[in-house]
Amino acid sequence: xxxxxxxxxxxxxxxxxxxxxxxxxxxxxxxxxxxxxxxxxxxxxxxxxxxxxxxxxxxxxxxxxxxxxxxxxxxxxxxxxxxxxxxxxxxxxxxxxxxxxxxxxxxxxxxxxxxxxxxxxxxxxxxxxxxxxxxxxxxxxxxxxxxxxxxxxxxxxxxxxxxxxxxxxxxxxxxxxxxxxxxxxxxxxxxxxxxxxxxxxxxxxxxxxxxxxxxxxxxxxxxxxxxxxxxxxxxxxxxxxxxxxxxxxxxxxxxxxxxxxxxxxxxxxxxxxxxxxxxxxxxxxxxxxxxxxxxxxxxxxxxxxxxxxxxxxxxxxxxxxxxxxxxxxxxxxxxxxxxxxxxxxxxxxxxxxxxxxxxxxxxxxxxxxxxxxxxxxxxxxxxxxxxxxxxxxxxxxxxxxxxxxxxxxxxxxxxxxxxxxxxxxxxxxxxxxxxxxxxxxxxxxxxxxxxxxxxxxxxxxxxxxxxxxxxxxxxxxxxxxxxxxxxxxxxxxxxxxxxxxxxxxxxxxxxxxxxxxxxxxxxxxxxxxxxxxxxxxxxx
Length: 540
Fold this sequence. Notes:
20 strands; 5-stranded parallel sheet
């Protein structure tokens, strides 16, 4: 039976066993500290991943059931302009959301840090460490990426067949394609095999070639850390002066409640659960929530929005032969209004009509998993024999699409609050997501669609669908709810990731992001977690 009693002595208590918590716990345990990790979800059996992959493929299963999400434990509410499908965005368990992420890992551009209290140079060494820790396959072929110091740990995955089709059209338009850094093994690395091509990368990698944070949880445990699963933290307690956190109060499946004391605390539970925990931890000294003297806890919630255009070609695209993206384009990242020049005229510049603001950063993706797979078509259809074979031949093999991300600017009204009208399985108010998409974000989506459409038109595609300003959805990157800053009246943590209000409380999460950029955030989360761990080490 799992012992879920608190440790008598702990130097550090980490809340959350996703990538940030796992990396911070491993670094601190490796340096000889007594570390306890409290994780709300369960510890999944690695050998069970093939069954979970099958569950993900079969249409009779709820997608949330793949990683046991849903029910009172994971209840939430949503308000604002758009409904936010929170449970599709996360996994509660040892490994966190890296159990079902896509695995793309890019460094933010230097321009992304202009509003942050640190710059790219401050994170540059941590980015390199994070790439080694996660195991990143990449190539130094992106002319728009920030400078780097060493090659990637592994060579990049080669371009897919559909990438080669896109390359011809992009060359004619003057659009630059380059490789995608992926946190998956292109060769054996860190006792994990090379990618074997299951193609179900999101939501399940059965082989373990794609990085998931349970690897670093195991590394932390080998260094002496203790990980307690199914131990959701209910609140944090602090001393009388209100200067230090004294304990994390957590529940266990047997209905008991425990207090884990420690010298230092690190919150690594993500951009929704971290502000929720701080708001649940209100006290006489902090009536608006712990570490919330600024009023910024929960505010400035940001996500990336998806833009896409797709259709079919009159030639084979080999869709779904690769389950992850191998080529992208950052050419329009720092200046999305720019046009291009090519033999066929290029992509036209964005035209300022005066009716909408100029677009923000855009990342373009060349999707090689556009359209259905034969397995999905067969399992979801009601045909058999020759009829099914004809349908598969007609519907598979010539789909083509582009995707992309645009970011939101931080806005106070986009926020995470508590909803006392709905409670979880422990009687606590659930998180409520107030979310809307502003005019600048819609302008960025519109511009992304323009560029995507120009490339697909050049390719000769029969365009049949567009995801843009009116039907966009989130990329499930929760950012900004405990933002970093130098002014304690305007921010929650400082550049050393320690809260302004409490001397022994650090936050390692995309919740500290000041701006969102338009790049997948996990590598930056990992870099910040390693930086936060270094500063905890200094305080200890």
